Every structure is written in structure tokens, then in C-alpha cells.
Amino acid sequence: MVRALILDLGDVLFNWEPPTSTPVSRKTLGQILHSDIWGEYECGHLTEDECYKALASRYGYDDQAIAETFVKARASLQLDTTFKAFLQTLKQRANGALRVYGMSNISKPDYDVLLSKADDWALFDKIFPSGHVGMRKPDLAFFRHVLQEISTASEDVVFVDDKLENVTSARSLGMRGIVFFDKEDAQRQLLNLFGSPAERGMEYLSINKTLLQSATTTNVPVQDNFGQLLILEATGKPELVRMEPGQRTWNFFIGAPNLTTDIFPDDLDTTSLALSIVPTAPDIATSVMDEILSGLNRDGIVPTYFDRTRPRVDPIVCVNVLALFAKYGREDELAATISWVRDVLYHRAYLAGTRYYASPEAFLFFFTRFTMNLRPGPRRQELTALLSERLQERNKTPVDALALSMRILACLPLGIECSADVRTLVGMQCEDGGWPACVIYKYGSGGLGITNRGVSTAFAVKAIQGCAARTDLKTLNRR
């Protein structure tokens, strides 16, 4: 559990600009700030006059020029009020369970100036300026001193600093470290650490309910049933989605088709998913499955469309049809299709994606969904064993948020360890609580990708919740 947040002050909570109208160049100023002389000054071992004289001697400037440079630098110092407000809200939400500390490499004179730049310092429970402590970052002694003073175990501390070497020292002592690049990224990471990722994700879905529509990678809106069905199955919340159900079979598109032919046929993929998720009269499901059996290709494999003039085959479409048949105990009627998707799995023919799906994880996820519908027996045992091998081969492979969620969701029912993937997934959460838009599927001709933040978020929430059911999430947020 996070109990303490330690923040650097300069370049994190406060910003400043190197002065340009002084004899000391920006390059020399950088050298000064990284010099041993400046380090001694920040630790309080040199007075301001002693420091400026030593720097003037080393760098060939008059000490008054050095002094003028830092007077102007101090004048540019400004508090980031929006970031401060964010931190105050973060602390308030913790209801007294979070303490906030400052830990800064700063001389006594500069610290006095910094204190004058803000009227309210109630955010901090205590500040540790190096000039008063007599130690500075990245020295481990300074970190150990602070940990002792705040009486908090290092694993319960989050440390934020703009310098990697300082964060490295903090991490080496067991703290969770965030390298500050910009305010937005820091806020996102802090929210992911202090908030509940699943709760924040569900809040995003609720705020955007019925608006969780798809778009192409070129930002063209796409109204489709398939993405809505995926969100519905992942969340179990019909109020989040807006669909256009078919009478018997379903169409991928809601309303008029987009970026394809003017007349677009119903497809087996959307239909099978819908009949597996949406309550359907058994006689309708039976009649649809009978129709599917009447349209198998010459290899005995199910096609993608009910329109026989479009003889397309995709292994993931096949797997989704098989999941429907397995739900009704009729998978034996598609023996040739089962044999083919098993070969696709065995020979890793999915690694480049498929005609309609972008990622290998999509095949593994939907294949898992199929096997979970199979009755216990030799077939299920064989397929799940092979599936487990293939999932472990993909373990820790870098992928986008949706593919990662799919992989986790495929691993969970098979008992495959995936905590590292969950940690990565949590770190991908956006500041608004959702996850990034990722390509789910693509147009068969041309390969234009279709994305949906709602699907990415719904899958991520389900993956995190599934892992939380067997793993303490306190260990998943560690950095």
C-alpha cells in the first residue's frame, strides 16, 4: 500500500528558465549546476559568497556575473499551480492515508526564495532541503535519512524526480520511482498508482456509455455491432452499448456500411458472437447453425459471410463460429473446421494476424473462448494443452493494450502466470481512466484498421479484475 509520496521541487512542482541576458552562457550554467562546488553549496558546506567566488575562479567569470545570473534565475521561478492542485486532490482522496513530502537539492538561500513563491505549503507534511539536511541526491544516505524521518517502509513510498539517477537511487532502496518528463505523464502514472485501475476504467466506460463507437486508424467513424458485442461480453452491462440486432443473423455494421460496398451482407463472425452473448431463442440459434452448415466450403470450413458470392475464410471467424456450436454441443458437426484451426494454432499460422484481425493475441483470445465452451474430454484437453504452450511463447512480448488484455484474458483460465503483463497493462492506462484505442480488426481489402477505446478499456478492466481475483493488486502496481 502506498503511504507516502516524495516529490522533487525544482523542475517538478516549480519551473524556472535559464537567464539569457547575462554573461554566463547556458552551457556554462549547466556545467555549474553539475559541479562539485555547486554540490557543496547545496549541502550547506559553502556560503553563497564562497560558492560564487569559487565558481568565478573556475569558470573565468567575475563573481558578480555569477550572482547576477542566479538572481535572474530565481526571479523566473514559478509554481505549477495546476500540478499542485492535482496533488492536493490526490492527497484528499486518500482520506488521511497518504503523506506528501518534498525532497530537493537546494541551497539555503534558494530554498528561502522558493518558500516565498507559494502562499500555501499545506500540501507537504514535511520538506527535506539538502541545504538544511547536509546531504543531496542521488546519495543513498540522503534517501535513507528521509525514510528514517518519515518512518515508512521503502516499498510503501513513491518517489518523483526529473533526474533518472535520483529515481534509480530511490528504486535501488525499494521505492517505486517515476521519472518526471512532463506534468500530464506524471499525473497519469500517479493516478494509476493511487487509484483503482479497474474502477477508473469502469468510470470511463460509464461516462461514455452508448458513445463507445469505433473509428478507423485514419479517424473515420465506424458504427459497428461487433465492437459493441465485445464490450457487452467483457462488462456484462448492456446499458453501455448501442447495437442494431438482426432478426436472425447479424450485420457487422450499424446502419449503412462504411468504406466498403453499398450493400454489405450479414456475417458469421458477428452473428456467432451475438448468438453466444445476447439471449436468443434456441430455435433461432438452431436454424442459424443449420444454415451455416449448409454453406461450408469445399474443405468443409465455415466462410465469413452468408453471401456465397464472397468466399472469404478467416481462422478467427472460424473459431468464433466454433464457440457458438460448442455452446450448443454441436461442435462435432464442424470437424473439418476444428481440424483446420487446430493446425493454425499448431503451426503458428496466426503470428502475422489474419485477414480480418491484426494481432496474434486476437486468435489466441478467441481460441481460448472456444475451448472454454467445449465439453470436458480428450479434444478439450488436447487443444487447451497446445493453446497453453502457444500463450507461454507470447508471454511478455511487447504489444498494444488491447492485445495485452486479450493475452491476459486467455492466460487466466489456463492458470498461466501473467502478473508482469498486468503490471504493463496498468501502466498503459490514460489519465481519463480509459486505455488507448487499438486496432481490433481490419477491412479485408486494403487492411485499414478499426479501433475502439471502449473495447480496449472493457478488455483491460476485465483482465485486471480477473487477475485481482487471484493476485493482490498491491504487487501489480510496483515500479
TrEMBL record:
CDD domains: HAD_sEH-N_like. PANTHER family: ALPHA-D-GLUCOSE 1-PHOSPHATE PHOSPHATASE (PTHR43611), FLAVIN MONONUCLEOTIDE HYDROLASE 1, CHLOROPLATIC (PTHR43611:SF3). This is HAD-like domain-containing protein. It comes from Aspergillus cavernicola.
